[in-house]
Amino acid sequence: MKKQGPDGNPAPVMPALPEPLKDLKIKYTKIFINNEWHDSVSGKKFAVFNPATEEKICEVEEGDKADVDKAVKAARKAFELGSVWRTMDASERGRLLNKLADLVERDRLILATMETIDGGKLFSTAYLMDLGACIKTLRYCAGWADKIHGRTVPMDGNFFTFTRHEPIGVCGQIIPWNFPLVMFIWKIAPALCCGNTVVVKPAEQTPLSALYMGSLIKEAGFPPGVVNIVPGFGPTAGAAISHHMDIDKVAFTGSTEVGKLIKEAAGKSNLKRVTLELGGKSPNIIFADADLDAAVEFAHIGLFYHQGQCCIAGSRIFVEEPIYDEFVRRSIERAKKYTLGDPLKPGVQQGPQIDKEQFKKILDLIESGKKEGAKLECGGGPWGDKGYFIQPTVFSNVTDDMRIAKEEIFGPVQQIMKFKTIDEVIKRANNTTYGLAAAVFTKDIDKALTFAAALQAGTVWVNCYSAMSAQCPFGGFKMSGNGREM
Amino acid sequence: MAALNGAVENGQPDKKVPQLPRPLRSLEVKYTKIFINNEWHESTSGKKFPTYNPSTLEKICDIEEGDKPDVDIAVEAAKAAFQRGSPWRQMDAPSRGRLLHKLADLLERDRVILATLETMDTGKPFLQAYFIDLEGCIKTLRYYAGWADKIQGRTIPVDENFVCFTRHEPMGVCGAITPWNFPLLMLVWKMAPALCCGNTLVIKPAEQTPLTSLYVGSLIKEVGFPPGVVNIVPGYGPTAGAAISTHDGIDKIAFTGSTKVGKLIKEAASKSNLKRVTLELGGKNPCIVCADADLDLAVECAHQGVFFNQGQCCTAASRVFVEEQIYPEFVRRSVEFAKKRLVGDPFDARTEQGPQIDQKQFDKILELIESGKKEGAKLECGGLAIEDRGLFIKPTVFSEVTDNMRIAKEEIFGPVQPIMKFKSIEEVIRRANSIEYGLTAAVFTKNLDRALTLASALQSGTVWINCYNALYAQAPFGGFKMSGNGRELGDHALAEYTEVKTVTIKLSQKSP
């Protein structure tokens, strides 16, 4: 993601990379309500697996509607007028968020190791990128806490009018498995900054780092009931949240398919406010006047980062005809240089996909690419005899009607298409129900600014990809989402 | 002002009563030189000047005396630190914020040292320095630390084929001239927003009170601000101060002090290079007590409002207007309060009032007290100095004060409370607004309509309703009319320390 400053920077941000913890003990496996650890009401537990080895890591209490009800009660109580949380100075909320950032910094190695084992994420990425983003986001939102201004408004007549920007109330937050800790922080940080209380359901594939955060939230000194964490499954715990009559807002990051269900449930229940961060099929447009090396590298990372499991994956690469062949050649070379393996080990560049379901879906889409006539340049199948590994795959001569050009793959599969003119590529780039991100590579200022305006995407990158930072709003046009985070 | 020292344990306030902090006896003053480029320098001239403890009248130590050549060196350092490509200019905005947070951490760590130094140098009671001055400093630093990466420009839909956006850039080298009444707090009020926005600084602390500012120099270095970002040149107004206000290499000047000197500074800024100017000047602040007020609350707030910090506040409630019906009772209770006020050694935990800052101020206050007596105000209590040696003045209350008296018009800056009578709201609005100052005002009433009417009508930068001196980092502060130009604190300070640049880019065809 974002490159850091020069060595002369007296406040450097990139720490040295340590070794992952050996024999990480999983201490927190229960439901977190009112700063306490609870068993599930049903007595059920569910298993959590390491996708690199397919082995079970541990079992976690399985929350369902009854547990969500308990959590909502606690969150509602903590939000009552006159409660400690409601009467706390706004600046003090900011202090607590900064304190939480300090604790995440202290336990960075534990959390990074956990994220790797649970999510199949490369350890170096988890430690440097994911944890870095978590800490920065917490600190960014901490700074906003006492700066949420209303206005005085000059109304007609003998009136004095002013606006207050009040917290919404109890917020349900459903977190995905691709960036478990970062997405957890992206949701709780602004919610707490504004004075809300939350009920969080982490993804069933990756609940461990969220539960560990429960212990840090308690240690930082957040009042009981402000943050509650209920691990469980979508159709049970997740649905209980989106249908709940006493939750004031639901925020969800995940697939567009489930996002629609959540918005529907919100409408059917109590009109709770909805924020959605959904899928994408983001276009990456490369002009002949681009810096070709940079474009190839950004396009590569933009797709293959975290095994292709990013909502912003640049999964439709449009290359201007004159440089098409060269671009494809360099992209294949780049994709071939990969070492797959256990993401905890140094020297590994690609880890496993998250689970069997994703693994099968990606392989199915790869087959469709072959069948529908795209040219398979490298990869194209699974790797290894254990774990959900897929070879880095590149397709060229892809046309817009192929499934691999239309459907979100969420795997290490790169599609490269050809284009002739600006108007043509704008039309083709926008010709999708998604609209999360887009990029254009060109040195021409006119082209760059034209695309910034013409592309129907929540974020447009010029001469870069995946540049994200806590200070910038992020979210989707069309069916890539509703609302903005950060 | 909030002074919550209790910890928050699992979200519950700590029920234990915190122990009162104690000052450091025989504190050694370590930093007495000029601070430039994170190093300590002697003055170019070789001269030094003494700084005194106003309680004991003893010299604390000698300080290097900066003058124009030292200011020149400091400005060169600040300019170099502000160059394109410098470590400070290249630093990510959130990293600037982290440095400000770390500075707040170090102020917390050295809170007792700083409060002790402040008391030695100013005579303010130690517990007030610890709980009020230092608390304000720490919170203000943390407030601006949070703004550092949120200073946003806008994209603007202009006519025709253009992309237009604004950048809010740092101004450059900022001169800051700070006063002696809240030396550290006033320094932080300028330093925090200036650094938050990416500027560099050349600071001249008041000659009466340089010690805490110089100590902060050592903390700036410890935290890791690049050399040249903060420079501190102690010295006198007519020499070092004037060198700053006339300097062609300084892009902006911020001054807190008297209106008289503020005018000189604005003049000098205009005559030199049109440097931008922020001024926080004097006040003769009305405190309006209506008959329906909570009388106990009003009496106590009016009392603290005028006597706090030995009366040496720009916000001093130095014209108390009391509605006729409750006037005698208000005066009676105010005199009781004034008589109880404990004046003495500022290091004693029981002391509420210490000495005035120096002989010049002391003489001026006594002269104004004499004028009150001569011009016919009724002296209710106090009215003279406490001992024949020392700068202590008895808390003084005058009643039957009329608007034409000197004590009703001139800023006294001492422990003197003039109490006047009023009949109607329209009358008191007119009288409150009838002077050239306009810093703060206070209103005591339970009636919502009256409170909001007065809040709108009073020509003051801050209006307090049923409270006094409620000052917080989040809320802008500054004066109407001749009490100042511009606003400190809140998000408004950001505008004082940034320069707006509009960028307009031509496109070959119109974009949405």
Automatic annotation (TrEMBL), chain A:
List of catalytic residues: E277
Superkingdom in the source lineage: Eukaryota
Pathway listed: Cofactor metabolism; retinol metabolism
Protein name per the record: retinal dehydrogenase
EC number in record: 1.2.1.36
Family matches, as InterPro entries: Ald_DH/histidinol_DH, Ald_DH_C, Ald_DH_CS_CYS, Ald_DH_CS_GLU, Ald_DH_N, Aldehyde_DH_dom
GO annotation, biological process: lipid metabolic process
Native species: Polioptila caerulea
GO molecular function, one term: retinal dehydrogenase (NAD+) activity
Catalysed reactions, semicolon-separated: all-trans-retinal + NAD(+) + H2O = all-trans-retinoate + NADH + 2 H(+)
From TrEMBL, chain B:
GO cellular-component term (any): cytoplasm
InterPro entries: Ald_DH/histidinol_DH (IPR016161), Ald_DH_C (IPR016163), Ald_DH_CS_CYS (IPR016160), Ald_DH_CS_GLU (IPR029510), Ald_DH_N (IPR016162), Aldehyde_DH_dom (IPR015590)
Pfam family, one: Aldedh
CDD domains listed in its UniProt record: ALDH_F1AB_F2_RALDH1
Primary residence: cytoplasm
GO molecular function: retinal dehydrogenase (NAD+) activity
Top-level division of the source organism's lineage: Eukaryota
GO biological process, one term: retinoic acid biosynthetic process
Localisation per UniProt entry: Cytoplasm
SUPFAM superfamilies per the UniProt record, alphabetical: ALDH-like
PROSITE patterns, A to Z: ALDEHYDE_DEHYDR_CYS, ALDEHYDE_DEHYDR_GLU
Gene3D superfamilies registered for this protein in UniProt: Aldehyde Dehydrogenase, Chain A, domain 1, Aldehyde Dehydrogenase, Chain A, domain 2
Region (Disordered): 1-21
Keyword terms: Cytoplasm, Lipid metabolism, NAD, Oxidoreductase
Residue numbers annotated as active site: E280
UniProt EC number: 1.2.1.36
Pathway: Cofactor metabolism; retinol metabolism
Catalytic activity: retinal + NAD(+) + H2O = retinoate + NADH + 2 H(+); all-trans-13,14-dihydroretinal + NAD(+) + H2O = all-trans-13,14-dihydroretinoate + NADH + 2 H(+); all-trans-retinal + NAD(+) + H2O = all-trans-retinoate + NADH + 2 H(+)
Function: Catalyzes the NAD-dependent oxidation of aldehyde substrates, such as all-trans-retinal and all-trans-13,14-dihydroretinal, to their corresponding carboxylic acids, all-trans-retinoate and all-trans-13,14-dihydroretinoate, respectively. High specificity for all-trans-retinal as substrate, can also accept acetaldehyde as substrate in vitro but with lower affinity. Required for the biosynthesis of normal levels of retinoate in the embryonic ocular and nasal regions; a critical lipid in the embryonic development of the eye and the nasal region.
Assembly, per entry: Homotetramer.
The family this protein is said to belong to: Belongs to the aldehyde dehydrogenase family.
Protein name: Retinaldehyde dehydrogenase 3
Organism from which the protein derives: Polioptila caerulea
